[in-house]
Amino acid sequence: MNSKVLSVATVLALTAVVGSSPAPASSGPRPAPERALPLGPVGLSETRSTRTLQPGVTLTRIVRGADAPALPWTVEIAIPGGATSPDPDAPPTALKDRASADELTADVEGDGFDARSEQVMTPAVADYAGGSLGWRVRVGRFDSQSAATAELTRLRKAGYAGSAVYTGWDGDSADRGPWRIDVLTIDPGRFRGGLEASYGPDLENREKTSELVARAGATAGINAGFFVLDPKSGAPGDPAGVGVYDGRLLSEPVNGRPGLVIRNTGRHSTVARLTWAGRVAGRGASRPLDGIDRVPGLIRNCGGTADDTPTSLPLHDMTCSDHDELVAFTPEYGARTPHGDGLEAVLDSRGRVLELRSPRGGPLPHGGSSVQATGSRVAELTALAQVGHPLRVQRTLRDGDGRKVSPSPTISILNGGPELVRDGRLHVTPAADGMVQSGNPSFYYGWMHKRNPRTLAGVDAAGRTVLVTADGRSTAALGLSIPESAAVARALGLRDAVNLDGGGSTTMVVDGEVINEPSDASGERPVGDALLILPDRS
Fold first, then answer.
1. Which phi and psi (to 5°) does residue 176 adopt?
2. Local confidence band at 439 (pLDDT 50, 70, 90 cut-offs)
3. Long-range Cβ pairs for the range 152-155 (8 Å, 24+)
4. Who wins on pLDDT, 10 or 255?
5. For residue 537, which of 288, 263, 272, 191 has the smallest C-alpha distance?
6. With contact defined as beta carbons under 8 Å apart, do 42 and 176 qualify?
7. Alpha carbons 508 and 467: distance in angstroms, whole number
8. What is the pLDDT of residues 480-494, one digit of tens each?
């Protein structure tokens, strides 16, 4: 039996048996001894400073390779013919076949620039063979960002697109740093506070991690799951994957992708792959749901139903579509449900139909909910819903073995991916989780292979929940590739770990202050949800 999947049922069973009574501090496995981070050559300088934030919670800052020499800047030219994305974390179209790269290199050289083509090799991981991702085209090597930017200006005037990049972000294992990593550790044997997820006042809007921490009076917090950023992909702030808050399923899983399962006592955290099913029932019949609390027709990160286009499989940072949907809305969604063509059954707090409105969209009654239908599903909702009669919405989570998962109000689940560590072994799963995209090697290159800011979480062999942020996109902190993130998680002693939203979203807040360096030029990015450590309740 799959131990990863078993852990979900174990969490729910153990919470009923163990309750909130603390275990003796000496019981259970002991934490693994510290190991140097597997970043760069052996023997690099590495410092760690740890302080206690509250009983059972520590913060450790790790700096590795602080004395590393500077690496050169270069200009990477976009190769024509690739996909684009409105997401600021999406990579440029940087890779193509050798012939295309060599052709572009010759053109750039012909215009008087020092161009070169380079093959990009990536390591194998659990479900992806690695090898050659393709070829990139670069111009020059420069001692400073300003010099690279000046060359980029010249290239743009000559008709080329590209960006100035620091070669330390490439992911070369010989690089000597620096890296800056912050680690929050929650020891359930001594922890008397609370550990919970928060999305703010509603699902459909974004808030900064620091705002969510302040609103809850939390000791600390990190950004958490992936979310909708572009209004063309849905409601900005809406989770792009599973979202369970206070035991309520408010966002459906990207089917089969992993989630971080936490309990408010900090006990029995785990990583689990989840699926779901939902139905709307009324007037003696029922029909399947497509989603929960999201704009109908837009499925961020894909992984929805069989009639979604272009795929029902996970496809990260892409938005699939379906013109024929039934989507349920809860009071937590926002002030108004999405407006558009179709039909909406508005329900009171008891689940009785108050009105059928078309076009759909508008406010919900206090404590009320609704079901929206688009396309061919309008006729189905019309047949199910009758004013004054009940309309029941059923949602069921299941684990990887198909067993029903019934979270209690003390459970939160946050979306993530790919997996990083399973049962103490490196287990990176980009193919299963939609990061390997046919015909678009540039996505894997920018998102998986290159170094970026990262947020990750998991549980160690002693049962401690561990939350990690790694700064990146600067010369003072290189960031991590996804394989490096997995190696760091294992070096920190994590038995199971998952990647959460990173890039410009990566944020850690402690005692009311953002302690890392968010990479967006505008500063801290508003996000969809956060994982919060609340003060002692005793």
1. -105, 10
2. confident
3. 152/75, 154/113, 155/75, 155/77, 155/108, 155/113
4. 255
5. 191
6. no
7. 9
8. 999 999 999 999 999
Q: Taken in order 403, 463, 28, 483, is the CA torsion positive or negative?
A: positive
> So what's the pLDDT on residue 32?
56
Residue of 508, 468, 524 whose CA lies nearest to 185: 468
Cα–Cα–Cα angle for 488, 50, 496, nearest 5°? Answer: 30
Give buried/exposed letters for 251-265 (b at 16+ CB in 10 A, else e).
bbbbbbbbbbbbbbb
Could you tell me where the beta strands, DSSP code E, fall in 93-178? 115-122, 131-142, 162-166
Distance CA 150, CA 153 (A): 5
* Distance between CA atoms of residues 391 and 431, nearest Å: 39
Q: Is 60 exceeded by the pLDDT of residue 418?
A: yes
Other beta carbons within 10 Å of 386: 15
Torsion angle (degrees, nearest 10) of CA 22, 25, 27, 29: 110
**CB burial readout 422-446, b (16+ within 10 A) else e:** beeebbbbbbbbbbbbeebbbbbbb
Q: What 3-state class would DSSP assign to 137?
A: strand
- CA distance to 49, 70, 141, 423, per residue, from 475 (Å): 22, 8, 15, 34
Q: Which DSSP symbol is given to 442?
A: H
Q: Which amino acid is at 531?
A: L
Q: What does DSSP say about strands 291-292 and 326-329: parallel, antiparallel, or unpaired?
A: parallel
